Amino acid sequence: MALRPRYLMGVAAGMAYALASLWLMTRTPPARWTPVALVVPMLAFAAAGAWRSGRRGWSIGALAAALALVALAVQGGSVAPERIFLLEHLTIHALLALSFGLTLRPGVRPLIARMADRLHGGLTPAKERYTRHVTLAWTIYFVAMMVASALLFAALPFRLWALFANLGTPLALAAMFGGEYWLRFRLHPEFERSSPRDMIRAYRQSRRAAPLPPAGGASR
What is the pLDDT of residues 187-208, one digit of tens each? Predict the structure, then answer.
């Protein structure tokens, strides 16, 4: 309970960033520093998260991309900001899709199963199957968001795509979380409730951990 204000502040900060991004994308004239103001903070945040998770290569790559954007702006170079924003949106979802999807390979324990195992202990075969399905669902979700983003960018005016990217994306993510949360405790009420902090910690630990074999020889 004591952590609720912290999470509320995080949500408020995220919404403020989304609204500021939307305003800069749609209400200000094109400028070479606009992509820097919008993309570099997110790249820095991603670099810090990747470093803490042990993904040193990803962290260095994110920092290199941020420095390249700053250097381009300093030199007066121009890249269409709209394309940079699209690339950023697609890259984030591609990396998340890979993060989940690669753990669905044969002989690798699904990411959600590893997270649930760290949160709740040993999983039954039914829970193993459920967590595999949820991992697949998240992979499909991130791929679907990439496809939707590319199609909307090609078909709609940029201001409408920006509305989708900055407001539609977090709303879709919240709906996905809420829907999975409801389904999980409808199908498996024996799962213990977990705080957002617990889930974030389990995700980080699961990304660092080596793949674990399915418990009890559970099938897919």
Answer: 877 776 665 566 666 666 665 5
CA quadruple 20, 98, 182, 148: dihedral sign:
positive
Does the pTM exceed 0.85?
no
CA atoms within 13 A on the CB side of 16: 6
Distance CA 176, CA 178 (A): 5
Query: What are the contacts of 112-116 at 24+ separation with CB within 8 A?
Result: 112/138, 113/212, 113/214, 114/202, 114/206, 114/209, 114/211, 114/212, 115/199, 115/202, 115/203, 115/206, 116/191, 116/202
H-type helices in the chain, by residue range? 4-27, 34-52, 56-74, 81-101, 111-120, 125-155, 158-163, 169-187, 196-208
Element (H, E) at 110: none
Side chain identity, residue 87: L
Domain positions in the chain: 81-217
Other Cβ atoms within 10 Å of 150 Cβ, number: 14
